Structures are given as C-alpha cells and as structure tokens.
# Entry
Amino acid sequence: MFRAILFDLDNTLFDRQAAFRLYANDFCRRRLHLPPLEQEQALHDLIAADDWGYRPRVEFCEWVSRRFPAAELQAGEIWEDFCQHLPTFVEPDSRVQEMLARLADRFQLIALTNGSGRNQQEKLRRARLGDYLQKAIVSGEVGFEKPHREIFEHALSVAGCSADEALVVGDDPRADIVGAKQAGLKACWVSLGRCYPAGMIQPDEVLFSVLDLERWLA
Ligand SMILES: [Mg+2]
# Structure
C-alpha cells in the first residue's frame, strides 16, 4: 500500500510541451524576425533540439546560440530568456487539480522535479499546484537530480516512508522511471502516446496521462 506519491512536474502535472511550443514561437517572434517558412523551420528545430526538455539546458542554450546567430545571444543570455519567459506559458489544468485534491485524502503528494529552483517554483505557481502538493523537492535546491539515487532517498526521508511505500509518476524514462526503479521504488510512466525506449528498465505501469492514475490506484 502506497503512502506517498512523488510526482514529476514538467509534462506530468502540466503540459510543459505546450508551454515550450508557445515559448519557442514567442522567442522567434521577439528575437529572430523570420519570414513565415523560416519561422516554421526554426520552431521545428527548437522543439526537436529541446527533446521534451530532456536535453541538458547548457547544451540546449549553446545549440540555440549557434543555430540562430541573428539573435545575437550568448548561451547564458538564452538561459536568462528561457527562465524569464518559459514559465509564463504554463497553464493550470483544473482536471489535474481536482484529481490531486481527491488523492490528497489518501496519500502524501510531493513534487519531485529536476531544474533550477527559480524556474520550477515559478512553473508550480503558474500551474497553481502549490495548494495540492505538500512539498516540492527541486533538484537545483537540494543538490542532487533524478535519476540519481540520492534525490529519491531524500524524497523518502521527507515523506517519512520506505521505498516500497512510495510511487513515482513521471514522463521521463531515464530520470523518472529508471531512477525510481534503481532506488527501489515503484514507477508509473506517463507516455503521452510515446513508446517506451527499448532496453531500459521497465515501469510498473504505463499511463497515457497522469489523469489515468486514479483508475490504476483504485
Ligand atoms: Mg517531466
């Protein structure tokens, strides 16, 4: 029986992919001023390079700086732009909020997310999830990140439960699922319609969306 659920944030509790698309569009409009066809290609390239946010941010920002010299931005300035603007495109989802409100009667609900404190706290605020989660553990604030065992052990100590009493729910096969399983926790993968990578440690369950979690827990 689970006592705690550790939720990833981006593309698990809110649609980070939609927010990134809007951000990329806004970035092109503000910084590149391209004709429509080139803008289309730039958007496509930005979304591919971002790789659902899985690509390390330093690498991503360096790539943007090289790919779009017309923006006249160094990687550090692109990171600033990203931190300042991306969270503003995160939208709350009332269906997720309602599900969390119901689950909170049965489980401790904790966010377990990779990223900078500034970025992730702002996204939490924009997604209006603060009232539904007991605590948010952000890798940039604790000094370890998923998939490393230390951050899962830290989360278990915050939750005050053992590995077999906690469930991890996330969309990133490597950070969320492999990390959780290697730390001895059960894990549900949020597929969003994607196929699970071959050769990786398998999740205990595949959910299309986080909204399918309640049915699986019932
Ligand atoms: Mg995620």
